[in-house]
Amino acid sequence: MVKILIVDDELEILDSIYRTLKNGLPQYEYLKTTMSRQAREILRTDIIDILLTDIKMPNWNGFELAEVAKKANQNCRVLLLTGYNDFDYAYQAIKTKCDDFILKYNLDEEIVESVKKYANLVEKERASAERETLPMLQKDKDNQNTIDFIKNYIHEHIDSDLSLNTLSQTVYLNPTYFSRLFKNATGVTLTEYLLQARIDAAKKLLLKPGKKIQDVALAVGIDSPTYFARIFKKATGYTPQEYRTFFYGEHKN
Question: So what CATH class is 3-133?
Fold first, then answer.
């Protein structure tokens, strides 16, 4: 299934794009986020076929996300959204090898057709690649050894670069093949597994006295304390400080 990531820091616009595409092209899988940092993490650890992103956003703009997307998956199609009819943006879009450039006021008219066009290209390329990778997925024993090795590698290097490219190169596999292999073997995507591994490591570190929350974030491979606090709260129901106060106090008693 074609996987599409939608990024816009304005929640109302993000939800509108999501609904438009879900209604118009329900056969594809959609991920969405208002946080460019989260988008960067998804792009680095998952195989995204189409990135649909706003240009002007805090932290990481659309051009920077486009570079991350192309580096992680050279076949990723990048569709840029902007409210600015500006030649400089169009030029930059071409320079960063983006595939389409959509003005927000043309959204309803163009977005479904653009996504459909590039999704069809992805499906054709994938059908061709399937014939090459299917025999490799049959090697169950070797594959399980590879997955076990990667799981251990992740936990031992949780503070390091754990991008899809880095991990696939570690075991000398194609990133797309490795991503599929990991999902087939574990039942979860690499992105989901990494997030849980980071949360589990953070829980242990938060119970160590004197460990600053910003240091905990860095120790589990997240360079933004604010982003770390958001994903930790979403995963556990507690902010890092609340978790430390409640569970450390309970542990001491």
Answer: alpha beta
pTM equals: 0.68
The rounded distance, in Å, linking the Cα atoms of 94 and 100 is 9
**CA triplet 201, 203, 208: central angle to 5 degrees?**
100
Question: What is the number of other CB atoms lying within 10 angstroms of the CB of residue 39?
Answer: 29
With residue 93 as reference, give the H or E element that holds it: helix 87-95
Give φ, ψ of 170 to 5 degrees.
-60, -35
Sign of the torsion angle spanned by Cα atoms 29, 236, 149, 160:
positive
CA 7 and chain centroid, separation: 11
Both tokens assigned to 248: 């450390």
> 3 - beta bridge partners?
29
Tens digits of residue pLDDT in 205-248: 998 888 899 999 999 998 888 889 988 998 999 999 999 888 76
What ranges do the domains of the chain cover?
3-133, 135-187, 192-252
- CATH code of the domain occupying 192-252: 1.10.10.60
Q: How far apart are CA 102 and CA 51, in angstroms?
A: 13
